[in-house]
Amino acid sequence: MTTDVSSAHPHPGAPGRTARVPKYYRIKQQLLTMAEALQPGSAMPAERLLAVRFDTSRTTVRQALQELVGEGRLDRIQGKGTFVAQPKLYRTLQLTSHTEDMRAQGLTPASQMLDIGEVPADERLAGLLGIGIGERVLRIERLRLASGDPMAIETTHLSVRRFPGLRHSLATYPSLYTALAEVYGVHLAEADETIETALSTPREAQLLATDVGLPMLLLSRHSRDAQGTPVEWVRSVYRGSRYKFVAALRRPGGTVVRRTTAPPALDDPGTGGERATALDGL
């Protein structure tokens, strides 16, 4: 099989080297320009029409479209076509709930219970929750929605011994964290969170209304209360094409100096006032 490529200008700093750009990639860039000129939710032309427009095969067009779907620029709906994606939602890397994150963006949060029941703690889960191996763990699997759209599959694990009756409390309180605070007097204070990528399984793809094998964001959160006692371990699968993560970073030991004058121009670092932030120790 051959790949349709074209020459491009050599990259600066690499004299004598000419980049070879696949045809699908050039088409992808043109499709992206087309999508950016349309409103979210607008339909893209059919594959056969795009193939005629770009004088190429439908296979090449499909590859370009698939990459844009994977990047969250387009949405593909089975039996309907390809559409310009809605703007990505953001999730702050701090100890907030799905409900808080969605409401902060003007969206209506909701949850659909997929499964709830007790399981015995294996060695790893026992260590995470600070309980004995074989002790009962409440496992709660929920589909998280934002204004009706499925966004994540969240599986939470909590000690049954520490939170007796929690299963019934969830029917009364609007969120898990509210139930923990109101019924058990437990407030989350800190957590360790790991973010990885994974490909969607058939079940995950069906629940999240996406294609099998598309990139997902896999989050693991281990939360503790103010005394450092483990509260929960959560595994969440997010639609990678619909989310971006936002965090405020600061250098350890750094001191932030508030700007009092205009920032310098990017091409003239020696003039124009102080920097937006100055960090000691750099």
From TrEMBL:
Organism ancestry: Bacteria, Bacillati, Actinomycetota, Actinomycetes, Kitasatosporales
The entry's keywords: DNA-binding, Transcription, Transcription regulation
CDD domains attached to this UniProt entry: WHTH_GntR (cd07377)
InterPro entries: Bact_HTH_transcr_reg, Chorismate_lyase_/UTRA_dom_sf, Tscrpt_reg_HTH_GntR, UTRA, WH-like_DNA-bd_sf, WH_DNA-bd_sf
SMART domains, per the entry: HTH_GNTR, UTRA
Taxonomy, superkingdom: Bacteria
Keyword presence, Metal-binding: no
Native organism: Streptomyces eurythermus
Keyword DNA-binding: yes
Region (Disordered): 1-20, 257-282
Domain HTH gntR-type: 17-87
Annotated SUPFAM superfamilies: Chorismate lyase-like (SSF64288), Winged helix' DNA-binding domain (SSF46785)
Protein name: GntR family transcriptional regulator
